[in-house]
Design brief:
Length: 238
């Protein structure tokens, strides 16, 4: 990507080498207009995020924004878009079947096993083998900045989730530090993804002023756009 918008966009080098794939994680001032410059002619499909485990399959490019926290499609010319301000954006791609998905994983979505359920849903809908999936973990609040309470620990335990993403706070009783990337990595490994197919961006929005952080800015926080889409593939590329 060589447009000015690319200077404010984080991407995964391995994904950049896939010719029919467009993806990225925008910084705080990266807008829908920038998205249009990256994918001219693409239709944007956002989602009305509610911290759920709802997964919506995009079958038409003109679909209105559905309610839920995951989008998936095998259509070309469509950008699946999610918005974050500390929560973890995860992009999934199946090179073989040309299927993509975008997930919004806060602590609630993580507790509801959204990532694990998304991998299963892609298999059921498109025939995607989890071992073929690539996963890109975008910027999210890091463990050292993400303090949660006993209610979150109990929720994870009640769901039967591994607690390796939660560690006791070193100085505050009944408080924990949550590693969203580690917790979701565990889910995707359980779902059958190859650990070698996972890429992680380490930036923490809470620590970077050029990123949006709800914990730092409160209700004034903006939202960062994460997206993935499929280019149309010509016959000589098939």
């Amino acid at each position: 990507m060589t447009s000015p918008a690319a200077d404010r966009l984080l991407t995964v080098p391995r994904w950049d080498r896939i010719p029919f794939l467009l993806h990225g994680f925008g910084l705080a001032d990266w807008t829908a207009r920038d998205l249009a410059s990256v994918g001219p002619g693409f239709t944007v499909v956002p989602t009305q995020q509610v911290h759920s485990d709802r997964i919506h399959f995009v079958d038409r490019p003109d679909e209105a924004a559905p309610v839920g926290d995951a989008l998936a499609t095998d259509l070309s010319g469509v950008f699946l878009v999610i918005r974050t301000a500390d929560c973890l954006p995860i992009l999934l791609a199946d090179e073989k079947r040309r299927v993509v998905a975008a997930l919004h994983c806060g602590w609630r979505g993580t507790a509801l096993r959204l990532a694990e359920k998304a991998a299963a849903a892609l298999r059921a809908r498109y025939g995607t083998e989890p071992s073929d999936l690539l996963a890109a973990f975008g910027p999210c609040i890091r463990k050292s900045c993400y303090e949660v309470g006993e209610d979150v620990r109990r929720r994870f335990e009640d769901e039967g989730l591994k607690l390796d993403g939660l560690t006791p706070h070193p100085s505050r009783p009944d408080k924990y530090l949550l590693d969203l990337q580690a917790a979701n990595r565990s889910q995707l490994l359980r779902a059958g993804l190859d650990p070698g197919n996972m890429n992680f961006l380490g930036e923490c929005p809470h620590c970077r002023p050029d990123m949006s952080s709800y914990r730092r800015e409160g209700k004034a926080a903006g939202r960062m756009l994460a997206f993935v889409g499929l280019r149309a593939v010509s016959s000589h590329q098939s």
